[in-house]
Amino acid sequence: MTQAFGATTTAEDVLSGVSLRGKTVLVTGVSAGLGVETARVLVAHGARVIGTVRDMGKGEVATAGVREAAAKGGGAFALVPLDLADLASVRACADALLAKGEAFDVVIANAGVMATPFGQTKDGFETQFGTNHLGHFVLVNRIAPLIREGGRVVSLASSGHRFADVDLDDPGFERTEYAPFVAYGRSKTANILFAVAFDRRHRGRGVRAAAVHPGGIMTELARHMEAGQIEAMVKQLNDQAAALGKPSFQFKTVPQGAATSVWAGVVADADEVGGRYCEDCHVGEVLPDDEESGLMSGGVRGYAVDPTRAEALWVLSERMVGERF
Predict the structure, then answer these.
(1) Which residue, 302, 303, 310, 315, shows the most beta carbons closer than 10 Å to its own?
(2) Domains of the chain (ranges plus CATH)?
(3) What pLDDT does 288 receive?
(4) Which residues are catalytically annotated?
């Protein structure tokens, strides 16, 4: 019988009694927050983890505890450079991994940015869409041959996908007024749609993909937000929850935030999570796009798991990056 997990479950709870010896996992963005904790708990249970970081110096300092956990738990840990906002860096990272030829059991696309001022990546893409979606789109597709049969891809999304659907006609805000959280919502919807489309393409060989909402957590992800903005958003969330007769919003701890990624990646049934949106260590309910619900309440908007929309985004993404997969 599958153990029941929920919103307060930690990554350690998910892996209680589980050995990951012989498993290899790639985790992007291990220089802070969820990435560090995800890597730490995996190596503590015996996995070999390859972690990507934009700044190798910062990454070495941030992951000192991961190396200690690996030494104690029988796992192993290594860092590789990756800047998701620069496709030359993404391709170089993928090429290096392919040349090494090490197979992966799980790929966790964890890295990301949130609510940035308007800007563009080195390739001219809007910062959040380019970093959160297109960078991972190229990386994961390029290294897909390395993912073992029975492997998994976990795409870090967010309930923030409710801020906006993807805009297939204007992904770079060339004709749309830029709003930081609208851009964030578009990128998180894209992360979910990517999991839907990737799962469809690879499930025939036993590789499944799932999108994950980790929960609301205080991490470096909020570094672009102005003073008082988080407090104002929490008040708005609680006002929404009260109006809908729902519990007030509660931040998760980082260990709780890492739980669903680990659950979807190594514990959950593949057919249960494949092509789905997961939260609080379960598959989220698909909600009508027009249903009134608080931003942080459970569930996923239908547009974010629409297979037709997922295919359209895939085609657009290939065109934007100049590469077909």
Answers:
(1) 310
(2) 11-225+253-321 (3.40.50.720)
(3) 84
(4) 184
